[in-house]
Amino acid sequence: MMFKSRIKWAALLGLMFSLASLAVHLLLAKVSTAELVQHGLVNVFVDDMGTSVLGTKGVAHRKLWDKVKMLESLLPYSNPRTPFPDPSERSNGFVYAKISGGFEKIRTSIADLVVVSRLLNATLVIPELQESGHSRGISSKYSSFSYIYNVEQFRAALKSDVGIVKSLPSKYKEGKKKKLFPTLNPASSASPSYYAKEVLPLLKKSKVIELVISDGGCLQNILPPRWVEYQRLRCRVAFHALRFRSEIVDLGHQMVRRLRASGQPYLAYHPGLAMDTLAYHGCAELFQDLHTELIQHRRRMKMIKRKIVGDELSVDSHTRKRDGSCPLMPEEVGLILRSLGYPPTTRIYLAGAETFGGQRVVIPLRAMYTNLVDRTSLCSKRELLNLVGPEPLENDPVQPPPAKSVHQQKEEWDKAGPRPRPLPPPPGRPLYRYEKEGWYGWIQEKDVEPEPSPNDMREQAHRLLWAALDYLVSVEAEAFIPGFHNDGSLWPDFSSLVMGHRLYEMASWRTYRPNRKYVAGLFSKSSENLYHPKHKWTLSLQEHLNKSLGEDGLLRELKRSKSASFLSYPIPECSCRSAGSANILSLVYRDMDECPQWMENSIKPEMEEDIASENEPRMDEEQFYERGERDEAEGNEKMPLIDLDVEMDLDD
User: To bridge 163 with a disulfide, which of 54, 116, 123, 154 should be the other Cys (CB 3.0-4.6 Å)?
Assistant: First the structure.
């Protein structure tokens, strides 16, 4: 009897311990989500166990990640060099602006707007960003400007350059509502004389003018030499005043720390596969089926009908690609990185809020580099939702399309013409959401692209946040390579802005500047053996990419990028050179201003550190390339790793 009683007590005690253990596990799961997510993120990366992170960095590491020695003497210096008085207390009036467009257009437009306000001796009202207005359904916690940028930092950083207020004085607000003030739509190529002769008289008369900026800027990029201080003002705006709000900065830095876990460097890559850019250049044939039709529709409706493009609708995309007018596809970028010697375990951050073609076009790159991640891999859903903030409830439920008779469906199909159509879903499967309201839905039904729903507009505002995160991570990367930049459209593009920021802030960090026409020619010569190219082909590609890091790449960008966007190439106006570096720099930069003494003193410790690292033992060139091939072979064996959802939509 006593024995049975002890068994019961032991069973009861075991049950109590089990319940207590379950309660503790549930509590940990609830309060430690962030820590568990972080633990999972650390395991996302497949590390090269053959390389000691804490040990000496050999020549293999240096050739892939070291700074460009020739550019180490270039330092950021956008302070005024000549008398540049504080803004006059007697302002000529107020400049109020509405800015439309994506992240790149917003950033360049704000820099131009500050310079224009200074030219007019006007007080700038914090501009309204159309993409993040409250009509988009964003959180009421933020204004359109503060949704992305830190308003107080913006005002404090420019207090010596231009007067800035958060809103118009109350005596002018009624006039704004009644639209009593003149409204102007300046072109991105507007000259200073345009503002002096046409805008300034209107400002002095009405005291308030409204600018509607939709072209990615409102002032020409190249200014006469006597206006050089205004170019430096552009740099102070873009690289010092336009800081993201604290939540974006904190999450961006957290992403960088996760990418650099275990002391590993990372490379950032932006594909540049946006529908507008592809439609502008006629790159539809590089894609298939529905994506081709979407690009052609955008080219016809938005580019040709509005006379943005003077070409025909159908052009030879492959010829355009050989001319360098189409982007490098992710697969080609993967082959470029392989030829440079980056091992399969290299950590690569995939930037870009929109990658047209979805995950399908990224699959070849992911197969070559398993440590390819983006914001959704590095951040939990909770972290991204916290960045968005509390938003009003969704008021746009998806409604299924009205049922159609067989006769109606046949009649619409007969009228549709020869263009390819997506197949209907097989019987027995419900319609997915995207088939009801997305690309597939409207292409099947009509030729006119539907008006964006409230949810679509909200997602467009979210893209600004994702682009801000991508921008932070890309600027901080040890190496950066663009898929599409400097495309000749005269629109600012994401990659060019990142490259310009890196050139200003840390010119010596590795920024590849591939000549797409040259690279496309190399790929066409080896189209049948891309994954096993000849050694001479690999050496040619390596030589081109390594030269693009230094003088050759910079000279090419000077000729092409600066006229399209000053912020993509802010030197020599916004830089200085360290003392005694004139012989290192090319003729283009020998006349650059010498840095002040206080800057020289601040960089001496870093230079001593670099000299010490150079004295470490090195391996020769042959050992380096043998090591790269061995790493690649080993990486292919241990390649499984980021777990992909088997039900992931490849067109997402």
Answer: 123
Residue with tokens 């005043």: 241
Residue identified by tokens 């966007």 is 565
With both helix axes pointing from N to C terminus, report the angle between 454-476 and 103-119 in degrees, rounded to the nearest 10.
80
How is residue 353 written in tokens? 């809020």
- What is the mean predicted confidence (pLDDT) over 296-309? 78
- Tokens 């995309």, located at residue: 317
Buried b (16+ CB within 10 A) or exposed e, 461-488: bbbbbbbbbbbbbbbbbbbbbbbbbbbe
Q: What angle do CA 396, 400, 403 make, to 5 degrees?
A: 150
Rounded-to-integer distance, Cα 368 and Cα 377, Å: 18
Question: Do 58 and 353 touch, CB atoms closer than 8 A?
Answer: no
Sequence letter at residue 306:
R
- Pinpoint the alpha helices (H) of 526-575: 535-548, 551-560
* Beta-carbon contacts of residue 456 (< 8 Å; ≥ 6 apart): none
**For 231-254, how does the pLDDT look when each residue is reduced to its tens digit (9 = 90+)?**
999 999 999 999 999 999 999 999
Q: What kind and span of H or E run contains 248?
A: helix 246-259
Assign 474 to helix, strand or coil. helix
Output helix, strand, coil percentages for the chain, rounded to the nearest 5: 50, 5, 40
Q: Residues 586-623: pLDDT tens digits? A: 555 656 788 887 776 665 545 445 444 444 444 444 44
What CA–CA distances, in Å, run from 188 to 184, 221, 307, 498?
12, 8, 17, 20
Those residues with Cβ within 8 angstroms of residue 447's Cβ, 6 or more apart along the chain or in another chain: 297
- Which helix (H) or strand (E) is 125 found in, with range? strand 123-125
Is residue 270 within 8 Å of 495, Cβ to Cβ? yes
